[in-house]
Amino acid sequence: MLIGVPKEIKTHENRVALLPSGVTQMLKHGHDVIIEKDAGLGSGFPDDLYIEAGATIIDSAEEVWAKAEMIMKVKEPIKKEYPLMREGQIIFTYFHFAASRELTDAVKLSGAVAIAYETVEKLDGSLPLLIPMSEVAGRMATQEGAKYLEKPMGGRGVLLGGIPGVKPGRVMVLGGGIVGVNAARIAAGMGANVQIFDINLQKLRYLDEVMPKNVTTVFSSEVNIRRELERADLVIGAVLIPGAKAPSLITREMLSELQPGSVLVDVAIDQGGCFETSKATTHDDPVYVVDGIVHYCVANMPGAVPFTSTIGLTNVTLPYAIQIADKGWINAIRENRELEFGLNIANGKIVYRDVAEAFDLEWTPLTKFMSLLNN
């Protein structure tokens, strides 16, 4: 199979979908790889490393898209790339369809095969291709939140760790998954007073046992969230429903509970955001203010630390990419249930239920879709 890796063009997205070592592995399996010029440069991997590994460097994204049977990316195709997608072409990347009707319609219309990193799922319910970037985003959420709490950045002027004689800052983390746990650990390490909210009592019991003493667990309800908002300096939104739109846990009316200059960091923005007032921002212009509250809603947070992020991401995506390339996408999803969960849209059909429900579109169950392929 011919694998194509275009350069990411989303604002300040410096990650790349395949390392030079990944090219070597693909070639060992009998596949060819084409890489757009300078695709890996932002992550610290120049073209000569890809050439040494056996890849062919292509000058234009259009040529990469036109030639490749499978496109490997990091972020979802953006509007400029929509015309480049074609029928039967496999696109393996983060899609987050539930956050964008425009993207969903474009992929449907193209007839491409969309296998989404974020919905590849193990039998235990874990999301192996989301975990490393969730770890990065969670740790960055606290780091960025602490920065924007500084007065020159528009915040309250609170030091999360406090000092002797002055109370530490208070951090609310909504969601006890990978993002939330990593955000809480960094906040706790900085010396903040941290609360993790979740609706899963078993998870809360576990976190209560393993987290540092300055982290407490709280059952997530509107009453409990409102009670803590009036004391919070930083709120980190870290909720996830795989493939579906994130629930809105803080409404605009609830912003009045917060002190002016408090900071909201919405890590769920890829899935539509978990604050009513959230809207996607970029690393160029990461924050905005609503009712005196600073909002940080960058949709590709790990793109700011591309060396770490690229290695972490490609460590987990490469084995699945090789399976798809070796077997073709149909046989790959038939033989690997984890990849089956990753298939979102194919041949103009939405086969992932939560994507269809997000926009009230027709859903074709995967079993029915596969039977149509057999016919």
Keywords summarizing the entry:
16% strand; Rossmann fold; 2 domains; 12 helices; 8-stranded mixed β-sheet; 375 residues
What would you note in describing this structure?
The protein has 375 residues and is α/β, with parallel strands linked by helices. It has 2 domains: 2-127 and 306-374, Rossmann fold; 131-304, Rossmann fold, CATH 3.40.50. It is 35% helix and 16% strand. It has 12 helices and 15 strands. Strands 3-2-1-4-5-6-14-15 form an 8-stranded mixed β-sheet, with helices on both faces. Helix 1 packs parallel to helix 2 (47-53) and helix 5 (131-148) crosses helix 6 (178-189). 51% of the residues are buried. The mean pLDDT is 95.
Short description:
This protein is 35% helix and 16% strand. It is an alpha/beta fold. An eight-stranded mixed beta sheet has the order 3-2-1-4-5-6-14-15, with helices on both faces.
Question: Strands, helices and their partners?
Answer:
Elements: E1 2-5, H1 20-28, E2 32-36, H2 47-53, E3 56-58, H3 61-67, E4 70-72, E5 90-93, H4 101-110, E6 113-116, H5 131-148, E7 170-174, H6 178-189, E8 193-198, H7 201-210, E9 215-219, H8 222-229, E10 234-237, E11 263-266, E12 287-290, E13 293-296, H9 306-335, H10 337-342, E14 343-346, E15 349-350, H11 353-358, H12 366-374
Parallel strand pairs: 1-2, 1-4, 2-3, 4-5, 5-6, 7-8, 7-10, 8-9, 10-11, 11-13
Antiparallel strand pairs: 6-14, 12-13, 14-15
Helix pairs in contact: 1-2, 5-6
Q: What is the CA-atom radius of gyration, in angstroms? A: 21 Å
Please list the strands of the largest sheet in the order they lie side by side: 3-2-1-4-5-6-14-15
Outline: globular
User: Mind describing the biggest β-sheet?
Assistant: 8 strands, mixed
Helix content: 25-40%
Name given to the CATH homologous superfamily of the largest domain: NAD(P)-binding Rossmann-like Domain
Order of helices and strands: EHEHEHEEHEHEHEHEHEEEEHHEEHH
CATH topology of the largest domain: Rossmann fold
The level-1 CATH class of the largest domain? Alpha Beta
Mean pLDDT: 95
In what range is the share of β-strand residues?
15-25%
- Please give the domain count: 2
- Poorly predicted ranges (pLDDT <50, ≥5 residues)? none
